[in-house]
Design a protein that fits this description.
Shape: globular
CATH superfamily: Immunoglobulins
Helix content: under 10%
Number of helices: 0
Strand content: 35-45%
CATH architecture: Sandwich
Radius of gyration: 24 Å
Number of domains: 1
CATH class: Mainly Beta
């Protein structure tokens, strides 16, 4: 009777580390109202020096994300009919993420 041969597994190849994605200049947040309930379809406007750069809307959960802005100082305005608008001024640094939340009151 012959002895079973030992089977050797091929040596594991070292795996390359995945390239790290460059971190975006990201501004995200949430808009809530009375009772801390999320408000959908709020216009979030980003301005520099009094000029609108772009605007987006909140989703069904009152949340928004914008990652296409260049570093710099921005005024962010959250507005929707029936609510008093909210404003914040922020400084977005390269590769950083900022969370800006708003609580809007009914008019």
């Amino acid at each position: 009777m012959t002895e079973p041969k030992e089977v050797q597994e091929p040596a594991a190849k070292p795996q390359a580390k995945p390239a790290q994605a460059e971190e975006a200049n990201r501004i995200n947040g949430k808009v809530i109202g009375k009772g801390d309930k999320p408000i959908s379809n709020v216009t979030i406007q980003f301005s520099q020096n009094g000029e609108e750069v772009l605007h987006i809307n909140t989703d069904a959960n009152g949340e928004y994300v914008e990652d296409l802005l260049l570093p710099g100082s921005y005024t962010i305005t959250a507005s929707k009919d029936g609510y008093v608008s909210g404003n914040r001024t922020i400084n977005l640094e390269s590769g950083k993420s900022i969370t800006v939340e708003f609580k809007l009151r009914n008019k």
